[in-house]
Each structure stands twice: as C-alpha cells, then as structure tokens.
Amino acid sequence: MTNLIVTITDHANYGNRLQNYALQTLLSQYGDVTTAYMYLDMTSGLKKVIRTGKQIIRPLYAPFVDNKRSLEIKRRKHCNAFSKAYIHENDFTLSDYKGLSSKRGKQYNRVVIGSDQVWNPQWISDRELALRLGSFVPDNVPIISYAASIGSTEVRKSTIPIFQKYLPRMRDISVREFQGAELIKSMTGLNATVVLDPTLMIDADKWLKITNDFVKKNDSYVLTYFLGKPSEDQERTIQEYAKAHNCRVRRILDLRDQETYIAGPQDFVELISKAEYVFTDSYHACCFSMLFQKQFTVFNRASNQRIGNMNSRMETLFQLFHLKSTMRDTGLAPAIDYEKVNHLLSAHRATSKKWLDSAMKA
C-alpha cells in the first residue's frame, strides 16, 4: 500500500515541514508513504521554471546581497536540506495547471489529506482548494483526511459548493480544530473527528533524533518565536524573566538574533528542547513546548487582545490540554502541571491512533 500525503508544501515554514515529517512517520506503519510536492498558484509551466531557477541561483548570489537577504538564503538552505533529508516528496507533483503528475510511473493506493491549514480558502483559488480536497483522485482510490485544518471561522460562499462536492467522497474525515468540525457539519452535514496534530503524535525522544547540535553545550537561554510583533510590555516581560534567571534571549525568525535566524526545522525542535522558557504566539511552538515539558507563555497578538479572539487551532489545543491560562496579554502564565498534561496527551494520542487505525483499513 502506497499512501500519498496531500498537504501544503512550504519549505520555509517550520510548522509545515515538521507536521509533514510527523504525518509521514505516523503513516509509515500502514505502508509506503510519499508526499505530493504541491506548487501553489502555479498557472503555467513558465512559473514553475522561474521558481526552480530561483532555487538554484539564490545560494550563488548570497555573498553579494545585503545581510538580511543573506541570512534568509542561509535559513532557506537549511530548510530545504531538511526536506531533502527527511521528507519523501519526489514521486508526485500537484499543481493548478497540471493536476497530479507522477514521476517514473509511480502509483498510489490511498490519499491522506492533512495536516496544517490545507483547506484554508483565504490563500488559494477555488481550483486549488478542490485539488486539496482530492478532486484529482479516482473513485476507486480511498481518501481520508488527518488533522486537516480550514484555519478560519468562516469560508467564502463560493467555496461552500466545493466542500459539498468533495468532502462526501472521503472515507473518513478528521480535522485539527473543533471549529473546523463545526464548519464541515454546517456545510455538508458530515461528521468530522477532531484528532491531534501529527507533531503531537511523535514522542519527544524520537524528535530529538533529528536534531544536530545546533545549540552549544551549556547555553542557557529564554526562547522567543513570534509570528506577530510583541508589544513593549510583552518584551519587558521577556527581558525581566531572562535577567532574573541569568539567561540570554534567543529569538527564532528575528533579525536581532542572526545566530538563531538561520535555524532549520530540526534546529527549531532543538532550540525548544533546550530552552529554559518559551515565549511565543505560534501553534507549533506550543506543541513542541508541551512535548518537551517546557514552561511557556503565549502572548496575544496586537489584534487579538482576548482569549475569545484566539484562532481556532489555539483554542482547540488549549481546550484539549486545559491550558487556556497560558494565553496572556503580558506577564508570565501560571506554571503548567505536566503530570496532568502528559496524562491528557496519552489519552488524546490513544483516541487519535484508534481513529487512524480504523480509517486506514483497506
């Protein structure tokens, strides 16, 4: 049995790469696994040629560009190296202009869609959404979704018929967020099961096997990873904690910390695993903080000043693990009881695994 994963292909995104690797690992017990390399918004062969050309020449001109651009090129090089080493994505390509293409006559027997915001219609065309819902799959090939995410509290009207057409073709549907399950129910009448993000299905010791000494020995640091920009009060909290605990501050994807900026996905894992404390607004930073039993605080972004306005993936994560108190406008979150979290993680893993075992039956 060859299982074909359909997900977002974003080599520069830590969470995307790590969830793809995790799902591949999770599915390997059910047969061979490969991921379709998806070209986003690629309406012509020319665009594909241009993108491939850029990937080739970027490292060549890195020494001649400004420091910011040079750092980004190094970071992308590390991210691409991770995908090449750990994610099998060379057998199939999926694009708007050509649909699914197979290399070297490769075939697949089952399609697994997910995880990440693979069904978020805000970023893609209706045709691309249809592809991500399996429009290319023959009727005799089973389709399931694992921890797929719509990533929004609502969808535009033009996409509802697409969900209504393709979701009923799936053998089993699972999603990452309660909000996603509710949207699917309202659009199609179908029931979707909420399961854990694949990154949470892999034990911490197995994650450590992909790390490669990015962090020097005896490095004591507080780690930050923000997709938004921390407020002055939030930054003050970070600095005060670091000073009180005699730590420096390491910052993922922040040009103030050039040493850390070039980190690849495996380095992202290692940085969290060795941090004294984590400050973030990132979903996957929360997941890995939990896996490595790190105390962490999640800061509201400027546009999300209340817990009730958190995005749905955070809401689901905190509801599943009773961690709503970790979300703050400023100040430290209460200490996390990891005996309780680990008990819940074991229970949710068992439920998610049971669903997957059933869904993957031929």
Q: Your description of this structure?
A:
- The protein has 362 residues and is α/β, with parallel strands linked by helices.
- It has 2 domains: 2-201 and 351-359, Rossmann fold; 212-343, Rossmann fold (3-Layer(aba) Sandwich).
- The chain is built from 13 helices and 13 strands.
- The strands form 2 sheets. An 8-stranded mixed beta sheet has the order 4-3-2-1-5-6-7-8, sandwiched between helices.
- Strand 3 and strand 4 (99-102) form a beta hairpin.
Descriptors:
362 residues; alpha/beta; Rossmann fold; 2 domains; 8-stranded mixed beta sheet; 5-stranded parallel beta sheet; 13 helices; 13 strands; 41% helix; globular
CATH class call of the largest domain: Alpha Beta
Mean pLDDT: 91
Radius of gyration from the alpha-carbon trace, in angstroms:
20 Å
The number of domains: 2
| Relative strand content | 15-25%
Spans of 5+ residues with little confidence (pLDDT < 50)? 304-309
In short:
Helix content is 41%, strand content 16%. By secondary structure, it is of the alpha/beta class.
